[in-house]
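Mods, move this if it's the wrong board.
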Amino acid sequence: MSSCKKTLILLVDDEPGLLEVSKAFLEEGGLIEVDTSPSAVEALCVKDFWRYDAIVSDFMMPDMDGIEFLAQLRKQNVDVPFILFTGRSREDVAINALNAGADFYLKKGTDVRAQYAILCSFIDHAVSRYKATSAIEHNLRRFQKLVDSMSEIVEVVDSNYVIRYANPAVERYFGKKPEEFVGTKMLTCLDEPDEVEGVLHSLLEGEVENANVMVKARHVDGSVHRLDATITRFINGRLGAELLVKAREARGSSRGRGMDWHQIAESQTGIPQER
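Not the wrong board. Structure tokens:
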């Protein structure tokens, strides 16, 4: 196992003898601790599923089978790894288990020691993957809170200039909530959009990787805010090139006092602009 701390699992099976044997084999190496339940119905009475690193369940049980058990767990937002450990070898059982959200399906075999070695391996892999995914999701939530709390506008714009993400700061300058903003074209929200389009095109084509420009945000009340924007090109997997836009209100910069948009774009990107 990948951790010094014991992996705690809930083992569910309606055969008392098999519960004992399985518990003994899984705890043999000293790295797994096993709680047992004689039925899925009884297991659903557990109030603190979050304590378990994984759940291992038989398929054929009275009142509720293993796949129904899994479905009930997912309905309760219990997302801990689930392994179906069953004597049934039918292909449809395996397919239904995986479709229902099981991490692994393992058929009970005649080579007892080998099957429990495989089960231990499945448990280790499922738990490690779950912890890694949970850590990523935790960091994403933390990052989301940070971005949402920023006074600076943050947007993600795709290759068609469609806004795919906007933080709450957009409401201050555009008068629209983020959910109203997402799905709209970035250029439709700007005053003098044609002047900005050339820079966006150059970024998406990879002619430059980032640019600092001044844009004019058109509020729904008709007012216009001048914003200093930093736009960075990045590759988003199969979606291709997208743009990360960060903008804040211009505060008495030289750009606001004397330079027009074309001068700003040329000085920041090196790309001659048509006048």
